[in-house]
Every structure is written in C-alpha cells, then in structure tokens.
Amino acid sequence: MRVYIANLGKYNEGELVGAWFTPPVDYDEMAERIGLNERYEEYAIHDYELPFEIDEYTPIEEVNRLCEMVEDLPEDIQDELSELLCYYSSLEELCEHADDIIHYPDCDDMTDVYKSQDNLTNLLQLSVLSFFRI
C-alpha cells in the first residue's frame, strides 16, 4: 500500500513536487519531503495503490487509519479485499464483519465449496469412527 502526495501550491504553479509514501505516513516527514511550509501549506493525494478508494483530499490521518484497519485483517481477507469490499458499504463495515467471513481457498464457485465441505465431512466422520473403534 502506498500513496503519492503532492505539494498542491507547487502543482497549481505548474511544478510537480511530490513523493510516494508507505503508510503510516508521518506528517512532518511528508511535509519536509514535498516542501510544505508557510507559503505552501496544502497537499493532495494524486495517486495511490490501496485496496480501497480515497480521494485527493483525504486527510493523511484517515489514510493511516484505514491502512491500519487493513493490516489488522486476516491475511486471506487482505488478499481478497478489493472484491470483498463490493459486498460492504465501507471498509469499516467489512472490518466489523470480518469474523463472519469464511474463506474457502482454491474454490472458484459454489460447486467447489460443496466439494470442499463434503471432503471435510468425510474426514471428520473417518476420524470419529477411528476414535471410537473397538
């Protein structure tokens, strides 16, 4: 995950001054790298590589918060995050329901899920039978 942050004042003057940052972004470090000061106080996010949507005026603190939420998710959910977000109204809602999400690796459709569950049921029955054999 990373964001390209530009000095908005310089950009409006026709000069592109910015840099790529990996969240969490430290505001002071970012300000120094892109030349924010008393004359140039504003920044904008001009590009990003994130599994969720933001706009150019999303505050850095919000980007950091959302990225931290993603990093706290289980890896299998992180891997499918862009697709899973289609089923939730926000990243926050997805995170609230992360424990409800069941991931079936190597399943492309519901037939594969059925076969996976059927195999698990058979394995469970075999292990129970072997446990109770006399």
- In the predicted model, the low-confidence regions spanning at least 5 consecutive residues are 128-134
Which architecture name of the largest domain does CATH use? Roll
Structural class: alpha+beta
The biggest sheet amounts to:
3 strands, antiparallel
Describe this structure in words.
- The protein has 134 residues and is of the alpha+beta class.
- It folds into two domains: 2-72, Antirestriction protein ArdA, domain 1 (Ubiquitin-like (UB roll)), CATH 3.10.20; 104-134, no CATH class.
- It has a three-stranded antiparallel sheet with strand order 2-1-3.
- The chain is built from seven helices and three strands.
- Residues 128-134 have low confidence and may be disordered.
Write the layout of secondary structure elements.
Layout: E1 2-7, H1 8-12, E2 18-21, H2 27-34, E3 43-49, H3 60-72, H4 75-79, H5 81-84, H6 91-96, H7 110-132
Antiparallel strand pairs: 1-2, 1-3
Summarize this structure briefly.
The chain is of the alpha+beta class and 134 residues long. It folds into two domains: 2-72, Ubiquitin-like (UB roll) (Roll); 104-134, no CATH class.
Name the descriptors:
3 strands, 2 domains, Ubiquitin-like (UB roll), alpha+beta, 3-stranded antiparallel beta sheet, disordered C terminus, single chain, elongated, 134 residues
